[in-house]
């Protein structure tokens, strides 16, 4: 059964997020869809949402702390208010745009692991690594598992080639299968694909061996598109 996740990134407001999640929850209820669905709104849009148990609201980022003097960050004191127990860690935009090191990512992972959060852990390679071939790509990806407990029971992995995120360029089926098959051999966890996943390609991607679902950015921000994505993958 495919796992479908939406990462809002820096999009939507508190008001439009409430509307989005209400419509999504109604859709899942009416269609009797029992796939796992995740939505990661902005931190300012977190709220006490009434949802099905299969619709999980997570946070895109948080600091490894309860509270404290960390300007611009949020911790578990803020997440607990809304009963958030799911977090996205290691996304390439936090690695490459915001400069999070593997050491910082590992610290965050271990902190939220100890609190038994559901962790969606992202890995991916930039174009210059991909062009060096599959061996170099896998070596680069393995470095992103340093310090990470891949046996953690509440772990979902997401492979997102950096060169395919928001570019409109989707990895070929062979690209996806090559990476997913090797990771699945080594790590027995659900493995999502992300990177220019759209309404018209999500079913084909999620049907590939070793692909357990999708982590979607741009194409998931419109509620009608996201509902169609879930509709297209509900029987996989």
Automatic annotation (TrEMBL):
This is Triosephosphate isomerase. Pathway: Carbohydrate biosynthesis; gluconeogenesis; Carbohydrate degradation; glycolysis; D-glyceraldehyde 3-phosphate from glycerone phosphate: step 1/1. One of its GO terms (cellular component) is cytosol. InterPro entries: Aldolase_TIM, TIM_sf, TrioseP_Isoase_bac/euk, Triosephosphate_isomerase, Triosephosphate_isomerase_AS. One of its GO terms (molecular function) is triose-phosphate isomerase activity. Homodimer. The active site is at 91 (electrophile), 160 (proton acceptor). It comes from Halarcobacter mediterraneus. GO terms for biological process: gluconeogenesis; glyceraldehyde-3-phosphate biosynthetic process; glycerol catabolic process; glycolytic process. Its EC number is 5.3.1.1. Pfam families: TIM. Involved in the gluconeogenesis. Catalyzes stereospecifically the conversion of dihydroxyacetone phosphate (DHAP) to D-glyceraldehyde-3-phosphate (G3P). Belongs to the triosephosphate isomerase family. Keywords: Cytoplasm, Gluconeogenesis, Glycolysis, Isomerase. It catalyses: D-glyceraldehyde 3-phosphate = dihydroxyacetone phosphate. It is an enzyme of class 5 (isomerase). It is found in: Cytoplasm. Substrate binds at residues 7-9, 166, 196.
